[in-house]
Structures are given as C-alpha cells and as structure tokens.
From TrEMBL:
Keywords: ATP-binding, Carbohydrate metabolism, Galactose metabolism, Kinase, Nucleotide-binding, Transferase. Residues 97-182 form the GHMP kinase N-terminal domain. This is Galactokinase. It comes from Sphingorhabdus buctiana. PROSITE patterns: GALACTOKINASE, GHMP_KINASES_ATP. It comes from the Bacteria. Residues 283-362 form the GHMP kinase C-terminal domain. Residues 12-60 form the Galactokinase N-terminal domain. The lineage of its organism: Bacteria, Pseudomonadati, Pseudomonadota, Alphaproteobacteria, Sphingomonadales. Its EC number is 2.7.1.6. Belongs to the GHMP kinase family. GalK subfamily. GO terms for molecular function: galactokinase activity. It is an enzyme of class 2 (transferase). Pfam families: GalKase_gal_bdg (PF10509), GHMP_kinases_C (PF08544), GHMP_kinases_N (PF00288).
Amino acid sequence: MHPSAAENARRAFVEHFGNEPAHIAYAPGRVNLIGEHTDYNDGFVLPCAIGFGTAVAIGPKLGDLIDVMAADLASEDSFSADSPMADCPDLEWTKHVRGMAAVLRDSGYQLSGANMAISGNVPQGAGLSSSASLGVALGLALKAQFGLDALGMVEIALAAQRAENVHVGCACGIMDQLVSACAQEGRALSIDCRSLETLPVAIPSDVSILIVHSGVRRELAESAYNDRRQQCDDVTRHFSAKALRDVGLDQLLAEKQNIPDVQFRRARHVVTENARTLAAANALSRGDLSEMGRLMAQSHDSMRDDFEITVEPVDRLVALLQSAIGPEGGVRMTGGGFGGCVVAILPQAKLSDAIAAVKRDYRTPDGSEPLIIETQAAGGARLIV
Ligand code: GAF
C-alpha cells in the first residue's frame, strides 16, 4: 500500500530539515459531477472531493526565508517571505507556492521564515485538481504556522484561485479551490459561484462514483480554456450583462441572429448547463439516479457539440460506460476538457460490471488499460497535525 500524502510529506520534512514539522495540512482534489465551465460565469457547479490530495508539512525557521521542497519532484526552492515572487524560477510548482505566499502577504497577512515539504497523490494532468489542492493545502499550512486566525476556508480558496490567476497564469474559476476547502464527507457540494454559498448534497450510501482516465493528456488545455472564457465574455458583453448567469435561454435564442455562431453555442452550453446543474443537485438529493443520468448525458452532449471541449476517446469512453450502466445512473466528461477523466455515478450493484466493461473495451491512446478510480465523496481540507 502507498503511504499517504501526509505521511510522505512528514517523512520528507524530517529527512530534509532534520526535525518534525509543527503542522501538516492536507487538501483533496475533486471530481465535478456536473456544471462545467459555469463557475467563471457566476453559475452553479456540483463537485465532490476525492480521496487523493496534497499535503504540506511546515515548521518554523528563523529569519525571513521560506525553504520549500517538493518531495515528489525532488526539487527545492527558497524565497523571501517579504517578496515571494522575486526571482521566481520558471517552474509551475514554485509559482503556486510563492504565488500563495504573495497573495496572502498582499492581503495583509504577516509571514516570516518557515520550512515546508510538499507531497501529493492526485493523478497529474487528469483534470482532478491537483493544483487547487496544492494551493488550499498551502493556505491552511501557512495559516497554522503563522496564526492567521482571520483567514477562513472560503478566503483560503479565494487566495488559491487568485494565486493561480495572477502568478501561475491560469484564468480558472473558483470551483476547484472552494470544494477542496469546504467539501464534506459523503456529500457533493452544490455551489453558487456568485455568492459562494455552498449546500452539501448527500450521496446515497448505495451509490458509487467511478472515475476513469481516458489517458488523453490535456495538451493545449490552458489556451483553449482561456479562449472559451473569452467567448463567454463576448456574449456577456453583447447583453450588457454582469455574467452569463444573468442571460436567460429565451433571451439568448431571441438574439441568435446577432451573435456569431461559435459564441452563441458557447453561451447556450453555459445557460443550459446552469439549469441542468440545479436540477441535478435536486435529483441527487432525492436519490433519483435516472434523472441524474439524463442530465449528465445532456451535459456531455452540450460539452461535445456546443462548448467543443471533448475529444474522441473521451466520447467513446462515455458511450461505453453509459451502455454498461444503463438508465439508472450517468456518465460525462469531468473538468476543463480536452482529455482527462470521465465521471460516472451509478448504483453500487452495477460497479463491477461497469469496471469490467472499461477493462474489456477501452484502451488509452498508447494501448494501456486506463486508470480507474472508485471513490467516495471525501472530506475537505484539514490540519492533520
Ligand atoms: C478547470 C477550472 F480550474 C475550473 O475553475 C472550472 O472552470 C473547470 O475547469 C471547468 O468547469 O477545472
């Protein structure tokens, strides 16, 4: 069995810095059940946390330097708590770490010297939010180390999003960080991405969540993601609205002739996905898996045809899982798109059939068996020590 992320981070801290960490913070990755590309349009999402995450072990250090090591990458960095972004190496992980320190510092939180070791087990490049889990775990570790009592979980999520937007260069919304920070075990989180209100939705105990990685790497995902954001903003501007959340389907259809076709279809995805996501939170809370399945199928079709973020192997995987699951339960691509994972929600009794069908009928583009993860909805970020 693999040691947990927290145990790996602790062990790396002890080996590297020669003493026990004062705190270990852990934050999970997530899978989104429905509500894709709606978060940055002030819309609705329904993700849950998964049983994989990132741990940050932290301890005191005299002076102003924060020394940090990424145990899984055998890579190190050292920066001033007073000017975290000065001479930042062009490495994604260091931008996340320094970016989080910079955002907290710019928000008025006092940081000073510290030692940190990081380890995570979220599958990389799978669309399961390894970055968000890193940002949130860092926020919680820095809060514990420096006694930042005013820093609440929602604020940690917002800081992690800001660090990604400003210092990593990814224009992501708030979904991933917020569910990593605030998830509850056994529940999905219905999130209003405008008010940031969250409503836990219990997942019935006889229902399973299955994640299958298509094996398609999410190449060019960042620039395509930013293009989609831009196209949504174009339509928002067309209506002089605050966000696409405020544009109704009738209103959008009435303007079809006056909006370029691509932009129209992007907006139609977002507007209809918001309605599906609210309906899905309702269906899940009633344990209505056939309605869930119907909404997830519509969501996938909309991502494929209107938002154009699926790829052929992902579409194939969704079709084969849907026929293994049948009408009680659903499956769709999950996350930002252009590869990555699909998520299925199904009765536990169907789980072994669904897994067998994937193993029998699906191969990743390099010919291997795909990564299959059966998960329960996990709890959100927490201090382990
Ligand atoms: C990525 C982003 F980080 C999220 O904010 C969200 O927009 C998602 O893609 C698409 O729903 O995970």
